[in-house]
Request: fold
Amino acid sequence: MMASSNPGSYYYVCTRMRVRRTKLIPREMYLRLLQMSLPEITLFIEGTQYKQEIDELATSFSGIDLVEVALSWNLGKECQKILDISPGALKSLTASYLRKWDIQNVLTILRGKVQGVKPGRIKEVLIPAGELDRTILDHLLTEETPERVVEDLKRFRTYDVLAQELPRAMETGSFDRMENELYKQFYEEILREAAAGVKGGEHFTEYIRLEIDIKNVINIFRLMDQAPVGNISEILIPGGGIYRIPDLLMMAGIRDRNELIDTLKERTTLEPLLDLLEDLKKGRSIREIEILLTRFQLAQMERLSKRYPFSIYPVLSYLESKRIEVYNLRAIARGKERNLSPELIRDYLVM
Reply:
């Protein structure tokens, strides 16, 4: 269970994660934020752990732009702080996990370039938490074309997939296939790294397999609302711990939701997941299904972090909870900026 030869430093990191969790915004506060104006929301955020970023950026941004950039900067810096205090194998595993931000950031830049979005607007939503730090991301933003962006990433692990998929993406105007392939590469790599004998790797693997399962299940539900697609296997990620690819391919052909749910239940003994799947028979929308599955994933991570309090779990649990907090605050701020009703905004929150 230990991830370092220095138990004291490892205990310290896990204890710090529990302290950090106490500073996360509780559910009841989100409900109050839904009743506030955008200036009031900004003032509230300034009174939390985002104060430093709000103060630093207030002279350059205002309104929704200030909120967006402050949240992005804070999350990026928080991830780096955790890496800085993490010892040995714990740091290695955490750094591997944070590489998924590179995928999101590069795709955001590429899509922005194609759509003609100004670099400053793209920068507002980038999270410099992976291998691609703020300096590298800023440089990518200066490039004029998607081709130049990809070329600048030649020395990074995502380059081969980016170079292979870019022509198709430019031709079709869709980066979905590129995104799928990047995530397949990402999960294959971190599962391989975790299996390479690193201490704590078995716990890391267990969670990663669960994360893959949740992504695949969400995609199977999405397919039910879509016209027949080409190669379904392109959107499924190998490596899940519960659902194998052949089973998922079979389930992708099921058009009755209750039948699909019963089939999903037959292939797991995980009690919380069984309960959740049964709940999905209540005519839930795809958006509700995604939120409920995300909540389940967070709750399962929290259970594991309590069962193994000095493992990778407390770190991953905090990182995911922090990510969701930023997502929720962004959703509320964006909704207010667009004059959406509190009820409609609430439907998009993960609480």
In short: The two ends are 30 Å apart (CA to CA). The chain is about 70% helix and 0% strand.
